[in-house]
Structures are given as C-alpha cells and as structure tokens.
Amino acid sequence: MRRKSKQILAAATAAALLLSGCGGSAGKSGEKTAAQPAASGDKMTDVGTPREDTLIVDMLSGTQTDPDNFNPYMTGCVAMDCGLHQLLYPCLWEADTMNGEQICDLAADFPEAMDDTNTKFQFHLREGITWSDGVEFTAEDVEYTSNILSSTEEFSWGSWYKSFVKSMKAVDKYTVEMELVEPNVKPQQKLGVIVFGNNFKVVPKHIWEKEDPATFKYTDPLSLGPYTLSKRDAQGNWFLYEKREDWDKSDVGVIDGEPKPQYVLFKYFGSEEKRVMAAVNNEIDILQDISPESWDILKEKNPNAKCWTEEFPYAIPDDPCERGISFNCSNEYYNNRDVRWALTLSMDIKQVSMATFGGKLKFSPLAVPPTTALTDVYQKPMLDWLKTYAFEDGYKPFNENTAKEMVELLKTEGVENLPTTDEEITDIFGIGWWKYDTDKAAELLQKNGFTQKDGQWMTPEGQPWEIIILAPADFEIESMRLAFAVADAWSKFGVKAEVKQQDSSTFWTSYATGNYDAGAYWPFCGLIPDLTENIQTWHEKYILPNGENAAGNKERYANEELSAAIDKLQTLEPDDPEVNATVEEMLKIFVDEMPAIPMFGTAKFVPVVETYWTGFQDSENPFEGPWWWWSQFRFYTTKIEAAK
Q1: 539: left (phi over 0), alpha (psi -120 to 50) or beta
Q2: Bridge partners, residue 122, by sequence
C-alpha cells in the first residue's frame, strides 16, 4: 500500500472545504477567512439541544456497533472514550497528569496495609456520592462488582482481576477491606487510573443483582459522574449526556464543583476532512487527533481555533504513550534480536518523522515516553549510558546529534520559530536516537542467514522477505501515518513492507491475539516515575500462545531478567529510590533486546474551537493536558466557560 502524502491530504481537505461552501469567500493573500460567528441563542444542535448550552466533542473511537450495550465488562460494549469513563464511570483513584501523581476519586484515601504481608488492605469511600437515580453509593457496590468479576467466566478482564484480587469486602457503608492474591504495596496503581483510565468500573448492586451480569447490556446506565446518558444514535454515531440535577452528589460535584455545560455531545463526524470542516463551521468544540496539515487549514479558516501552543510545534508533546513498532517476538525472524536491531538501524528517523508528522515529533530511544517529567527522570540521566552502549562487537549505535540534525532539516523546509539552544532543542526534539546505518543493518541480517537478490532481502529459506505492518484505519492518525513512513523506510532498505489498516476492534484484537508480525502500536506508556503498572504487562507470566487473547505482553517477549525486575518493582513503595534504579536497568534491557522499537513521544494536535466555549487548557493555562478521551475529562468541565 502506498503512503498517503501530506500534500494530497492537505489538498483534499482544502478542496472539501471549498466545495462544501464552509470555507467562506477567499480573502486576500495572507488573510484569514473569518469563521462563522456564534449565532443567537435559539440555534439548536442536530440532536435537539441549544447549541450555546452544548459542548460538542469529537468521538475518538468512531461509530459504535452496539449503541445499547453499556456493560463495561462485556465484549462489544460501547467504547469507554465515547463519554462513558469521561462522564459516567469514575474510578476509585484518578490521575493528575500535569503533576504526575495519583489522586483520590471515589475512594477517600489510598489503601492502607492491615499487616506486614502486603496482601491485606483497607480503604474508605468518599461520602456524599449517589448514583444518578438517587441511591447512595456505598461499599456494597464495590464488593458486588468484585464478586461478579471473580465469578463471571464470560468477563475476559475478570481472569486478570482474579489473578490479582482475592476479595473485596464491605466492612461498613464506606469501608472496604481488600485481600490480594500476592503481595503488592501499591494496589491503587492496578485498580486506579495512571494514564487513560482503568477497567475496574463499579456497577450499582441494586440494579445489577436483578440481572445476569454475563448477558446484561445495561442499556440505561446509571452514573456516579456529573452527567447522565440522555440520548443515543441508533447507528452508534453519537451519544448525548445531560448534567444531573443533583450534580453536587457526583464525584466531580463533591470534589470540584459544578460543570458548566448543560449538555455534552460526543459525536463521530467521519473522516478527518469532515471533522475539520465541522470545526471550521463551529459545529464542534473539541477535536480529537488530526494531522499537522489539517491544523494548518483549520487555524487559517477559523480564527477561534487554537492548539496547545500558539507557535511551533503547536501540538502538545507530553502524551504519556510513545509511538513505535511492536514485534510479535514469538514469530519466526522477529524472535531474533539481531533482526529487530537491523530493522531499527535501517530507518532514517528524521525522514520518518517528516513523513509522519512534518518533523514535529520528539525522538525517544528508550522504552519510556519523553514527557517533560520523565525526560528529566530517565531520558536525560541515561544519556551518558546511551552514548557508551555498544553491541558485543563494540559497535555503538546511538546518535546524540539526531535532534540538532532535525532542526537543520526543518530549516531547509522553511520552518520558523525553531529552538536554538542545546537545551531548547533537547526539550522539543529529545536526547537523540539510533544511527541510520544500512551497512550495519545488512551485516546483522547476513549474520543470521539473510541474503540480498536484486536489491531485495531474502529470508534464510531463500524467499523474498515480506513484512505486513498493522496500522489504525482513520483513528490515531499519528500511528497510522507512522506505519506508512516505516514501510517506506524498510522498502527502501530492500524489505518488502506493506501496511494493512484495520478498524479499532480488529486492530486491537490482532495485537492481543498475536495475529501480526509488526504493528504501529504504542507499547510503552508512563505518566509517573514509578512505572510499575505500565511496565508490568511485559512480564513473562502474561505470555499466551498466538491465537489466545493476552491481557499483557502482547509482544510475547520472554526475558527472565526483565520479569524478575518487574517482580521487584511490585515490592517497592513509589517514593523508594530503588524504583528509579530498577526501572533504569529494565530500560537497558529494552535497548539491548529491542522487542519493540520506541520512536517518538506522541505529539497531539487536538485543537479546540472557542466560538461557544472558552477556558480550555493550553500551554498558558495547563491545569491538565488536552486528553479529551481520558477519564479525567469530567474534571475539565468545571473549568470550561460559555463564550461571552
């Protein structure tokens, strides 16, 4: 499959804007075309709510196949980021992404050990919270949820839950005693939010105990958050939420105050071009991920549109999941460290960055995202080690000048407002990456029986080497484009590489079941320095045969030393100095073995349009990152204000 060029995308989007009539008349050269101003108060949305009272959010996961299924543990349920975990399903513990720490949400405190075994804990629930039908939220709901997860075989996540939690018991209305299967000093990391959300969703006992949990679709879900589900589209293209009259008895109401929008509409507008057109026309307030070219068009067409920064790089660089290429390390060829390293060294990372996101990406050679906080904790402190790291033959693969070379390349492209000092360059483009060295890559392959014929790499069996790279289709734009850029790089090197795009459900199922050789995933995430919960999925105990649905270690990479380090992390308190030292040793293993190729910190172009609503977070008002698809979203709604 051929790579979609950014010029074609930009031209197509611009043409669509003009043909639709939404772009307005063309102004003089260099002038912005004025966006349609907010209409009078009688303007209505297409779902029948006053526009000025409705916050409209782009729906990241697209059309939902069964818009009546809100059972969070049932296969095929509506995706959490369609407004469910943002507005209805709070977790016991949430994450403050800007400070990189967990905070209490439904729980009033963190688990406290009841003895020295680190298997028995007690925590308390926040008082004053009710379900949206007025019934009080209590410890019995938590105990009931724990019981159905442990006893309902149809719940795939339940198998993981049972491997960690032995029981949860309601001691009184607000006290829960929890027993774990094995020692762990920080169960709040496994059962609370550390990045995107958490699978432990408390359900109302008084509703669910009358149903069979395995088949109950929970079509009219209750809420512990500040909104309730009001309407949904029968085709699964939108979900409308309305502020609770008793919002003060929700988690947000008790903790943070009143949300400002009366309605929140999560809506799927279609392709990127259609989403941008909707933003130009003020039909959407919050956009999910778009490309740099689409942002250029949007900011030109609508003066009320804004991104994280006003100038380069515009996008926020601190998404805590970095992009790269995952390998199924149980498959032939990809179970070989030399082959994985050869594919790494065969890529010109600067050209991959240009093709992926116009060079607006931060390089990451480590299996930890290069967020501002984690760069200071891990990336910069490990720079000296990276410079000296060498293969067994003495070859040193690290290029500490990658970021400076990227700046020079962007200068030739006419990009302005680029960083100038070494510190600024590092902060925007990272500490460096691996060398582009096709000679060394060829040497590693030849060492393992690969040969070249007419510029094409042949497998040790003498067959043309072909790689299919799985990629998202019309979602997660950056990973989608990364796959095409990597395919171009590997094809140039002589490997027949093609991209296979898949819808969200198929893409993730392929990953979990091992139905892939390589894929543009994001296997390394992290928000807080204690990476225990993020990195524990790489433990050997999670490896399953290809074809079986793995809860973790979807790369199927076996390493006893890494697993032992993960076990050690489970015993360390988050502020123990040994945490950082242990993580560094794990990061060294990932470098040496390269079971997945970390490439870029994720840059997110997730603009807002301030025609109807203002007060959104940005680099000047960073009360949170713009993670509209994360569970923290409902806390943003107390900061957003109606435009004057």
Answers
A1: beta
A2: 112, 177
- Largest pairwise CA distance in the chain: 74
Alpha carbon distance 486, 343 (integer Å): 10
Q: What b/e readout covers 173-199, taking b as 16+ CB neighbours within 10 angstroms?
A: ebebbbebeeebbbbbbbbbbbbbbbb
Secondary structure class of 99 (helix, strand, coil): coil
User: How many other β-carbons are positioned within 10 Å of the β-carbon of residue 404?
Assistant: 15
Spatial CA neighbour of 390 closest among 351, 330, 452, 435: 435
Q: How far is CA 510 from the centre of its chain?
A: 18
Q: Residue 270: what are its φ and ψ, rounded to 5°?
A: 110, -145
Tell me the pLDDT band of 25, cut-offs 50, 70 and 90: very low
Q: What is the number of other CB atoms lying within 10 angstroms of the CB of residue 147?
A: 16
Cα distance between residue 627 and residue 608, in whole Å? 12
Lowest mean pLDDT among 86-90, 328-332, 370-374, 482-486: 370-374
CA–CA dist 458, 476 (Å, integer): 33
Cα angle value 158/227/234 (rounded, 5°) = 75
- Cis bond leading into 313, ω under 30°? yes
Query: Structure tokens of 217?
Result: 């679709």
Looking at residue 30, its amino acid is: G
d(CA 389, CA 409): 27
Amino acid occupying residue 4: K
- Residues in contact with 416: Cβ distance below 8 Å, sequence separation at least 6, in sequence order: 312
